Amino acid sequence: MKLKDLLRFPSMALLVGLLSLTGCATPPPVAFYSLDNGAPRVPEQMGNIAVLLGPVTLAGYLRSDALLQRQADGSLAQAPGKARWATGLQQDIEQLLLRQLAWRLNSQRLVLAPADPGFVADVQVELSITRLDSGPEQMAVLEAQWRLLDKAGKHLDSRLVALDERHQGDVADQVRVQSVLLQRLSAQLGGAIAEVHQASAKSPAPVRPRAQPRAEAAPSRRPVEPIRTDMEVFRF
């Protein structure tokens, strides 16, 4: 189509112009984020407590690779710039908690579930995170529940947790503050694990009842009676 023909149809000329601009436009880069583990020190020794962390379960919307933000009406929408979690939120949370707990308990004997068959944990942590989000004008909120079990699977302790923290509004600071909330959660968990472990170490071992000695038969006090036969026999 010649230029003079396009000029006769202004709407078509506008469409061609938009298509050409769209073809030349470069899509914005995807922004990737990950949680901040803080600065926990790596324990130098194996430690005297073994902990199995997991299973760690997340709410359905937290299993998405997209970074979602809480809106003013309570709904969730993807953060600007098509923000995404770099390695997945599940893995980020597990690694953050593992490193934080190892530092707080001063032990390297921490593993993620499922553990190898040879690993015997003094305490197992079951964690369910039902909410972890924030928004441009919404505080960062963490809601979770944890349970502590001993090596036999017996319930030791449990707690519902609700934490919140303010941020500066941009996505990067929201992720930073969500990391802070998880670090606060690990502080609570570390204290509870140490408490139940110390209590179990101080509790006395069950005392097994001592076996009663078997009573010996008392000697007979019946008088001796002679029996007259070919030979004299005494019956007792």
List the helices and strands in order: HHEEEEEHEEEEHEE
Tally of individual helices: 4
In helices, the fraction of residues equals 25-40%
Shape: elongated
Q: Rg to the nearest angstrom?
A: 36 Å
**Main sheet: strand order:** 6-2-7-8-9
Question: Mind explaining what this structure looks like?
Answer:
The protein is α/β, with parallel strands linked by helices and 236 residues long. Helices cover 30% and strands 25% of the residues. The chain has four helices and eleven strands; from the N terminus they run ααβββββαββββαββ. The chain has a five-stranded mixed β-sheet, with helices on one face. Strands 1-5 form a two-stranded parallel sheet. It has a two-stranded antiparallel sheet with strand order 3-4. A hairpin with a 5-residue loop joins β3 (68-70) and β4 (76-78). α3 packs across α4 (171-202). The longest helix has 32 residues, at 171-202. The radius of gyration is 36 Å and the shape is elongated. The model is unreliable at 3-21 (pLDDT under 50).
